[in-house]
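step=encode ok
step=design start
structure_in=
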């Protein structure tokens, strides 16, 4: 199994203990934009697994209550409001570095250390949500997904905003957009490097050439491309999304256990990113799964919030 495009932080660091107070205004804004996701029997997984070792199968059903999901991932503008109100410091800022894809490094960036299992990832001092490609790169774009966010950072923001991270079942149910057992939020038609680019993924030869046929090299605005049937944007591609739950694969096979050795405490990510390509990381499918350590941060991991029922939606008077 190829190493996926979300490596763990090379040197794990202790989790932060910051517990910021709730931010009603920003939470209400995100909640107002959230869309209702009907409850019922949700489909989870697939009967046609691509990466068996990731635990993609089998296809199963799980009963869910109605909830609401933010139509986009959390943006840099929203995260900036959180930081301004609380003084919160992300894990990347506290540790002093984060992982940046080599193709995004600004010209003139000093030599960087590679991640051994995936050398296209570079450990870059000073990279954070504020400047996603490092201190010599441009400031984060306001309407793009916030990145370089660890699971601990995402849960801190969620608590402040009055929401939470979705479970895997909630995420998949929402991503299907009411279409049932489909591979992608729009159906089963597969993106390609020619004429069909419904999401922000890689086109070309990974990791050396991104043709950018979908219009982007790197992140796209959080509200871009066509939404799915529930009104959710970029449920696959653009950035990986943290979920609330641990990454677990139930298998007795030695090969599977070996593939995930050392992942105790890792959290589950869904959706793929702008770095995914079928030839390398065919994980921009709804059932696909990935994992990373709680303190890991990269230039392609973000998150979105869910809210429990209508009672959590604070609407302006």
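sequence_out=
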């Amino acid at each position: 199994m190829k190493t996926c495009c979300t490596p763990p932080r090379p040197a794990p660091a202790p989790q932060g203990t910051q517990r910021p107070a709730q931010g009603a205004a920003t939470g209400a804004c995100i909640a107002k934009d959230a869309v209702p996701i009907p409850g019922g029997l949700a489909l989870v997984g697939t009967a046609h697994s691509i990466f068996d070792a990731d635990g993609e199968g089998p296809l199963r059903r799980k009963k869910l209550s109605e909830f609401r999901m933010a139509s986009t991932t959390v943006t840099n503008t929203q995260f900036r409001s959180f930081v301004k109100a609380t003084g919160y410091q992300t894990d990347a800022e506290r540790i002093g570095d984060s992982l940046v894809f080599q193709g995004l490094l600004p010209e003139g960036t000093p030599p960087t250390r590679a991640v051994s299992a995936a050398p296209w990832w570079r450990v870059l001092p000073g990279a954070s949500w504020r400047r996603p490609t490092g201190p010599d790169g441009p400031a984060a774009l306001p309407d793009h997904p916030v990145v370089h966010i660890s699971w601990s950072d995402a849960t801190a923001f969620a608590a402040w905003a009055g929401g939470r991270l979705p479970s895997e079942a909630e995420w998949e149910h929402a991503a299907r957009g009411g279409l049932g057992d489909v591979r992608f939020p729009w159906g089963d038609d597969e993106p390609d490097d020619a004429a069909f680019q419904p999401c922000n993924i890689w086109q070309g030869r990974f990791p050396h050439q991104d043709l950018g046929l979908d219009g982007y090299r790197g992140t796209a605005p959080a509200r871009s491309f066509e939404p799915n049937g529930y009104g959710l944007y970029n449920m696959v591609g653009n950035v990986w999304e943290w979920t609330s739950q641990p990454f677990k694969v139930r298998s007795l096979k030695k090969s599977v256990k070996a593939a995930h050795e050392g992942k105790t405490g890792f959290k589950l990510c869904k959706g793929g990113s702008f770095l995914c390509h079928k030839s390398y990381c065919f994980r921009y499918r709804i059932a696909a799964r990935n994992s990373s350590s709680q303190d890991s941060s990269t230039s392609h991991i973000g998150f979105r919030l869910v809210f429990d029922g209508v009672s959590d939606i604070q609407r302006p008077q």
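step=design ok
step=annotate ok -> Residues 11-17, 311-317 have pLDDT under 50 and may be disordered.
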